[in-house]
DNA sequence: TATGAATGAGTCTTCATTCAT
DNA sequence: TATGAATGAAGACTCATTCAT
């Protein structure tokens, strides 16, 4: 009845959150150079001075948004419980999950692109990023170890490299869907990407499989 | 009477080229929002009005640069002659070549990123892009057909999808090397990427191999 | 029931003082246009609303600081007891004192400069300023009278003008020391200024001395 | 007939001059912190980007204005020909001139005040300032030498110090006229300042005169 | 053809000031 | 009394674009 109720005011933490969310969205959709502080302020429902008071300047805000994108990614990644799965299923699950991740959180791939366009100037200044991703790598390492122990995977595969492989296969079609559509006339939609994830899983497993010749030799 | 005609006649084409090269470099390194017309003019060694007179406005210049990046890419791709290779070698060669391509022409991946950040607004307006890439796809198709005929590859693989797979494996570590370095502490250099290309080739071939079970069934 | 009353009662006066001191320092070092309310609040150890509640706005605070600078100056000036000195010694003492005054209270010359840059807009609105300086003028008047009576000074010298002369000789090298150093390569330090004060005293006394010709005529 | 004719456009040198004049006026009347680039642009009849294009930023513009104030001062000072005057008349002339100088070019005293409020941060970065003032000092030196040779002045007076003395006596009442008016109720106008200059001349000459005792001893 | 000169419309950032508790 | 939270208005500076020659 009382009409549009403004989001809670006079709540520093909440305000900072709103700014951060708005910033992440703006930087992800517009890039670093194209992002506008005005738009962030408006989207967050605050005045511009708030942004400067809480985050310093545009660059610092960008840094916070970049870090936030990693933090949010991590929160999603922790959710998968692969312990009770077979090594193959675990890998398939991780590939599916990664693809879904990139699709459902488009600001993440965008932030990666934006930051790499800038040659990683900012990412270098963020601490703890290593920590943020390490649980995922550990999880992969465990799956690999298990697979090797069970004779399903060949040994000597580095979990980080494996992750980069999985990410590669999922990242490219999601991140570049707009140009791919035009250049190759491919209707990149969720169904297409789902098939892609399946193929990717197959490819990764094929790559992990022990050499058949070795066994028969 | 016709006054000083120091500047060579027919400079028009050369001037346009210099502008285009400078624009490609600027857009690729700075992104669409971060690119500066001033810098392009200076790098091209022309005055700003020249740019406007030749290209209209910044957006049109960007479009020309984007198209140019595809044109230059195509010129490189035409060079590989895979006809005399075995299907496997041909695939390996294409993977190696693609990786080398992305590494040696960083403006291409950058332009892809930039344009996809913009949701492909501009790429849609460029005609002929399909033509530009189609020779590559045809080439891949021929290799696939040959491999299937020789019983080395399984049938039913779409050449476009195969290209996307190859591109995926090469694109991600090149395009995201700055963030990868920081986040995973991986020293992504040419040697690392070369190993990557080898793994990628192995993976793709593994994916193309006919089902062993099918043969034994 | 009355809750936590940690902050001492009757802090009001002390708080106002701290604000005033901080303001004086800020306005003197930064000028009117360069002064920042934030800095004053921080230096005073209070929140900004306190300043506004006590002083109204920045302009009023500036007015208070300007007046305060005159008040503090007066307090210093009252301290000199010249009654028991010879008229010459009294003048010398006043010159020395004035120079020392300007040196040791740099905010005073700064406030004068600041206010005169503003064409005295604010000083006009302060009452009682005349009273503040009058004791000094009276004192000078007495010294002059005594000197004339004793035949050491010529008559007809206006004490206000004499004060302006003394102030002139002391003010310029102190107030403009930074530019003088650079423009004339003069190492203006305390020793240099002390010599200056001695010369100034000599000059003033020379100016006050009865015309030798007149006596001999 | 053709109405208000705008000042010459498309003339870089003239535009720079207009900006510099406007800047000098603005900085002198508003101080460094109070000066507004907008106002300078408007007063100069140009758009703001012109200012930035020609002078870099506000600080550089301030530097140019400060230097300009010294340059203009020097141009005035070169005009006095004291060679044909008696040493006493030459000194009197210089004092009169200096006073007139400060009165008729109020931006000079204002710039001195402004810059000294800033502790000379900028003046240090200007080269050649020494050169600018040195002709005046040389001139004073010659007058002193001549006076000493003619037995009218005592030896050992440093020309720079003498200039500082003259400047002191003229600067203070001009620069601080607004506060002096209020604090001492003195009607500081041109007539008053003229009398001041005469007194100042008398004082300086008295200071330069050889010790009578020395002569009689 | 070519360009130095010029600018309207932003874009980031700051500051005096007020609100809500 | 006291202050953390908040902002309208303005300030310095930039940028794509056009004008005049």
Automatic annotation (TrEMBL), chains A, B, C, D:
Could you read off the lineage of the organism from its UniProt record?
Bacteria, Pseudomonadati, Pseudomonadota, Alphaproteobacteria, Rhodobacterales
DNA-binding annotation, residue ranges on this chain: 36-55
> Entry's PANTHER family?
HTH-TYPE TRANSCRIPTIONAL REPRESSOR SCO4008, TRANSCRIPTIONAL REPRESSOR
Q: Which domain of life is it from?
A: Bacteria
Q: Which GO terms describe its molecular function?
A: DNA binding
Protein name as annotated: TetR family transcriptional regulator
Say which species the protein is native to. Aliiruegeria haliotis
Which segments does the entry list as coiled coil? none
Q: Which controlled-vocabulary keywords does the entry list?
A: DNA-binding, Transcription, Transcription regulation
HTH tetR-type domain span: 13-73
